[in-house]
Amino acid sequence: MASKLVQLQSKASQASQLVAKHGTSYYKQLMEQNKQYIQEPATIEKCNELSKQLFYTRLASVPGRYEAMQKEVEYVKQLWKNRKDLKVENLGIAALFGLECYAWYCAGEIVGRGFTFTGYYP
C-alpha cells in the first residue's frame, strides 16, 4: 500500500511539473485560438447582459425540446402497443437504458448527500 502511495505521489509530482512547465503556453495558445469568443471590454454590465442572453436563449429552446420529448413519448407508446413485434435486441437496449437511468439517479443521490453512503460513517 505504501509503494502505491509513493507511486501516486510521484505521478502527481510529474503532472504538476508538466503543468508548471507548459501551462502558460497552453493557456496563451487556447486564448489565441478562441479570441473571437472573448468580449472586450469585460465589464460587469456586459457579463450580466451575456448571462441574461444565455438564460433567455436556453428558455426559448424549451418548446422545441418539449416537442422532441413528446415525439419520443409517442414513439415509446407505439412500441409498447406493438410489443409482441419487438426483438430481443430492442428489449436489451431498453433494459440497458433503464439501468443507466437508475445508475445516474443513484449517482445523483450520492452527490446530493455530499459523496456519503447511507449507513457509512468513517
Automatic annotation (TrEMBL):
UniProt KW Nucleus keyword: no
A GO term, aspect molecular function: proton transmembrane transporter activity
Protein localization: Mitochondrion membrane
GO CC term, one of those recorded: mitochondrial membrane
Predominant location: mitochondrion
Keywords recorded for this protein, A-Z: ATP synthesis, CF(0), Hydrogen ion transport, Ion transport, Membrane, Mitochondrion, Transport
The keyword Membrane is assigned to this record: yes
InterPro entries linked: ATP_synth_F0_gsu_mt
Highest taxon listed in the record's lineage: Eukaryota
UniProt-listed GO biological process terms: proton motive force-driven ATP synthesis
Family: Belongs to the ATPase g subunit family.
Protein known as: Mitochondrial ATP synthase subunit G protein
Source organism of the structure: Daucus carota subsp. sativus
Species classification: Eukaryota, Viridiplantae, Streptophyta, Embryophyta, Tracheophyta
